[in-house]
Design brief:
The complex is a heterodimer. By secondary structure, chain A is of the alpha+beta class. Chain A contains eight helices and nine strands. A five-stranded mixed sheet of chain A has the order 2-1-5-3-4. Chain A has a two-stranded antiparallel ribbon with strand order 6-7. In chain A, helix 5 packs across helix 8. Chain A starts with a strand and ends with a helix. Chain B is of the alpha+beta class. Chain B has two domains: 175 residues, FAD/NAD(P)-binding domain; 144 residues, D-Amino Acid Oxidase, Chain A, domain 2, CATH 3.30.9.10. Chain B has eight helices and 21 strands. In chain B, strands 5, 6, 7, 14, 15, 16, 17, 18 and 19 form a nine-stranded mixed sheet that branches. A six-stranded mixed sheet of chain B has the order 9-2-1-13-21-20, sandwiched between helices. In chain B, strands 3-8-4 form a three-stranded antiparallel sheet. In chain B, strand 1, helix 1 and strand 2 form a beta-alpha-beta unit. Chain B is elongated and about 65 Å long. Chain B starts with 7 loop residues before the first strand and ends in a 21-residue tail after the last helix. Classes of the chains: A alpha+beta, B alpha+beta.
Chain lengths: 250, 389
């Protein structure tokens, strides 16, 4: 089985007017939208700029807007977008500077993520089948220490939440949902009161958790179920509790 | 920007090999420029199984490849610990034939210095509740998991810190000759639409499955056999450890957990062109069936994505591609009677990228008369996010 689809792709280069180009491509039944974009590049226009690496929602590079909604095209099946032969519109993320076509400059996102000290791995908390697993069993060949199972965090730093965020659209100084969710994860992971205080200080800023308008668009759009909006609400609670504590400690 | 009087090396390709090579050369004090036609890791490295090999997979039939894997596995644990899931792997015997393979497997592990221990079937099932309950034996080895894009950007971030320049979306269109030697590249910059020439004292062809394209520009041959493989990713993570079938590598005999998915792999067929490989549906079905033998639960897993990409294997005569060694080699084309100024690094795996970089960088330094030694074994890498600094 093969699918014939038309892609309408946003095209842009600095100092040139933006336009949309349409490409007819044929992809296998199991293809995702990223495969269709790659076909357009391979068969029609080798100057089409798009980002991609892992093709399984782990690297976060390929994020775009499909028919106006932020998506990882590597896990968006083409067959979900077969709407009576209507073209599938592919545009770059919002709220980032555009480098060319579908490529945006993610420098700001990564600098903020780095500022949080967000570690991309964590010990696994959940058992796989609902039963508790004794995960102190690793071989740890490089050392004698017994270590628990670990795994990568859900957040893939794709920038989708920043693109979907109405606050971000109004003010690019806002720390943004990804960074605030990262702070909340680190607060959760640390036992060190100084580290915790430093993280809460970072979030307790007019461009931090207090800038968020609670539109929940980030949580709605996140392809990895990170739920940044809830993380922001949780940080607000923790910061408020800390203020009360300080007040009564006087 | 490094030492301005040092020789200038241009690396083509920012997959795992090119990224690790840029890091190695920059650490040795050379001036380094990397050009990559697209996004970092958008070729073979990106569409990777993400398996940090212990070498167990090759320890019976490809001892050279297996030994390289375990050496590099232990080094990567030291230099990029924060970018790895380090949960080990299980090799499990499904039938009597697999069980009979166990002694060979354990002997192979010992010979290649891969730490391995047999654990009881009951313990294996306790650790991995979704394993086929009818397994006959289980051996634990130090497999792990990496994330390909961050693997590359960690090396590149460190290279940048040491003065390297990285140009992505910059495509080599031709080589520039001075007499019979290659003295630079012509590139097309997709961002600006401009063509530029970049001069270099030496060029490293780290384009993997695409090595033949660059070699043709240098009018030399490389023995690369682009060999595709399919992987299916599922909507849920079903295992903590990498689950391998204990036998000679076959289709669909490994399930690698990454983040919140499990990836079933892989198949093997030769392709003539490594770009945008189309995936035959029968390959997907075959893999799912084989994967379900290891973990019956996989049939309940929603398919989240399917990917295929070409491995850059080195051809050897009269051997099927599945059995080609996973070892690597640096080809100095001048020594083979071809153009001077280009060295191709070929073969290997992402797990062995650092070792590949060391090998080609040694060759680069010998060619340029530079005496600096490799320091990548003991140098911790910068955060991948510093690539954007």
């Amino acid at each position: 089985m093969a699918l014939n689809v038309t892609l309408k792709i946003f095209r842009y280069r600095p100092n040139q007017p933006a336009r949309c180009d349409t490409f007819d491509v044929t992809v296998p039944d199991a293809a995702n939208v990223l495969d269709a974009i790659e076909q357009a590049w391979d068969k029609h226009d080798r100057d089409l700029m798009f980002r991609h690496a892992c093709h399984h929602a782990s690297c976060g590079t390929c994020a775009v807007r499909i028919n106006g909604r932020e998506k990882l095209p590597c896990i968006a099946p083409v067959r979900d977008y077969l709407d009576g032969g209507k073209p599938i519109t592919i545009e770059p993320l919002r709220n980032f500077p555009i480098v060319g076509d579908l490529v945006v400059d993610v420098t700001g996102l990564f600098q903020r993520q780095e500022a949080t000290g967000f570690v991309i791995t964590r010990p696994t908390e959940d058992s796989l089948d609902g039963k508790r697993v004794d995960h102190t069993q690793c071989l740890a060949p490089a050392s004698a220490a017994i270590v628990p199972f670990n795994r990568f965090e859900n957040c893939v730093e794709c920038g989708i939440c920043l693109s979907a965020c109405p606050t971000m659209a109004a003010d690019d100084k806002f720390f943004g949902p990804a960074g605030l969710a990262a702070i909340q994860r680190e607060v959760d992971k640390t036992d060190d009161p100084n580290a915790r205080a430093r993280l809460l200080d970072l979030a307790d800023d007019e461009q931090g958790v207090w800038r968020c308008h609670s539109a929940w668009e980030c949580t709605e759009a996140c392809p990895q179920n990170v739920n940044p909006a809830e993380a922001i609400m949780d940080l607000r609670k923790q910061i408020t509790a800390r203020r009360f504590k300080k007040l009564f400690a006087r | 920007m490094g030492n301005s009087s040092a020789p200038h090396v241009l690396v083509i390709g920012a997959g795992s090999t090119g990224s690790a090579t840029a890091h190695d050369l920059a650490l040795r004090g050379l001036r380094v420029t990397v050009v990559e036609r697209g996004e970092i890791a958008s070729g073979t490295t990106g569409r990777n199984h993400c398996l940090l090999h212990s070498g167990g997979r090759y320890c019976v039939n490809d001892k050279e490849g297996a030994t390289e894997c375990i050496e590099e596995n232990l080094i990567l644990r030291r230099i990029m610990p924060h970018a790895l899931e380090m949960n080990d792997g299980l090799f499990v015997a499904l039938d009597e034939e697999d069980y009979a393979f166990k002694e060979k497997f354990l002997a192979g592990c010992e010979e290649c210095h891969i730490p391995a221990r047999e654990i009881s079937v009951a313990d294996a099932l306790k650790l991995e509740p979704f394993l086929n309950p009818n397994i006959k034996a289980a051996v634990q080895v130090p497999d792990g998991v990496f994330e390909p894009w961050r693997f590359c950007t960690s090396f590149l971030a460190t290279a940048k810190r040491n003065g390297a320049t990285i140009h992505n979306f910059t495509e080599v269109t031709d080589l520039v000759f001075q007499g019979s030697a290659v003295a630079g590249v012509k590139v097309f910059k997709h961002r600006t639409g401009k063509t530029e020439t970049i001069g270099a004292d030496l060029i490293v062809n780290a384009t993997g499955a695409w090595a033949g394209t660059v070699a043709a520009m240098a009018k030399v041959d490389v023995p690369v056999v682009p060999t595709a493989g399919v992987m299916v990713t599922l909507g849920k993570r079903f295992n903590n450890m990498v689950i391998n079938r204990m036998h000679k590598p076959h289709d669909g005999d490994i399930v690698v957990p990454v983040r919140n998915t499990s990836i079933i792999g892989t198949t093997s067929w030769r392709v003539t062109k490594p770009d945008a490989i189309e995936i035959p549906q029968d390959q997907i079905d075959k893999m799912m069936q084989a994967g379900e033998l290891l973990m019956p639960v996989l049939k309940e897993g929603r398919q989240r994505g399917v990917m295929a990409v070409a491995r850059p294997l080195i051809a050897s005569a009269n051997v099927d591609a599945r059995d080609f060694s996973r070892t690597f080699e640096a080809f100095n084309h001048r020594k083979q009677g071809g153009a001077a100024g280009v060295i191709t690094i070929l073969g290997g795996k992402t797990t062995t990228a650092r070792g590949m970089a060391e090998k080609v960088s040694d060759e680069v330094c010998a060619e340029l008369g530079v005496t600096a030694v490799c320091k990548t074994r003991e140098t911790p890498l910068a955060s991948y996010r510093m690539f954007y600094n």
